[in-house]
């Protein structure tokens, strides 16, 4: 009977670990993004950071002497560029790195892009994988139309469970429960 009393807490711990592992996966995060685009710009999201990779025409938020923010999940971010406002950068350049909250997970995930407002093209340029350090890149392409336009999108990422780890934890928990049951 003493052995049984020691095993029940172990089985409960095994189930607790399994529950935590399963709940740690399948996390869904949505990023609401709003930006003023004139030309083509790539938005790189990795971990807790975000950065614009400007390719053509005026950089994000900087047309006609303006300095408009990129809005991510309701927070304004004013990226810094190689030249101060009101200058437009009409050559390839990288912006400063900004914060991304919550951070993009560093594990396998599915990504859904829901363009809410896009004059020309808004697509996923690169999906996050272990090979690219889980970097998601969105392509905001306003090259076809003259002048700047607002682009708005919701990007939803959902982590994908690691089948091997989940099965191993499930197996451990089930073995513990079977052992406890056998002792009864």
Tell me about this structure.
Helices cover 24% and strands 39% of the residues. The chain is α+β, with helices and mostly antiparallel strands. The protein has two domains: 2-22 and 165-183; 27-160, no CATH class. The strands form two sheets. It has a five-stranded antiparallel beta sheet, with no helix packed on it. The protein is globular, with a radius of gyration of 23 Å.
Q: How many helices in DSSP terms?
A: 2
Round the mean pLDDT to the nearest integer and report it: 84
Strands of the widest sheet, in order across it, are 5-4-1-10-7
Note the main sheet: 5 strands, antiparallel
Shape: globular
What is the domain total for the residues? 2
Brief summary:
With 184 residues, this protein is of the alpha+beta class. It is 24% helix and 39% strand.
Give the SSE map:
Blueprint (H helix, E strand, L loop, with lengths): L1 H23 L3 E10 L2 E7 L2 E8 L13 E3 L2 E3 L15 E7 L9 E9 L3 E6 L8 E7 L7 E11 L3 H21 L1
Antiparallel strand pairs: 1-4, 1-10, 2-3, 2-9, 3-6, 4-5, 7-10, 8-9
Helix pairs in contact: 1-2
Supply database-style keywords.
5-stranded antiparallel sheet; alpha+beta; single chain; 10 strands; disordered N terminus; 24% helix; 39% strand; 184 residues
């Amino acid at each position: 009977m003493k052995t049984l009393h020691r095993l029940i807490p172990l089985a409960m711990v095994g189930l607790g670990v399994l529950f935590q592992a399963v709940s740690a996966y399948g996390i869904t995060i949505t990023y609401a993004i709003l930006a003023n685009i004139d030309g083509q710009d790539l938005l790189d999201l990795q971990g807790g950071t975000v950065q614009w990779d400007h390719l053509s025409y005026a950089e994000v938020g900087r047309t006609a002497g303006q300095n408009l923010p990129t809005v991510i999940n309701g927070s304004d971010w004013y990226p810094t560029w190689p030249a101060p406002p009101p200058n437009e950068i009409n050559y390839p350049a990288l912006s400063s790195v900004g914060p991304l909250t919550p951070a993009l997970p560093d594990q396998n995930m599915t990504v859904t892009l829901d363009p809410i407002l896009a004059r020309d093209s808004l697509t996923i340029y690169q999906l996050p994988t272990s090979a690219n350090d889980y970097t998601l890149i969105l392509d905001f392409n306003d090259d076809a139309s003259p002048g700047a336009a607002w682009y708005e999108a919701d990007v939803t990422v959902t982590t994908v469970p690691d089948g091997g780890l989940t099965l191993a934890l499930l197996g451990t928990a089930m073995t513990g429960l079977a052992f406890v049951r056998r002792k009864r």
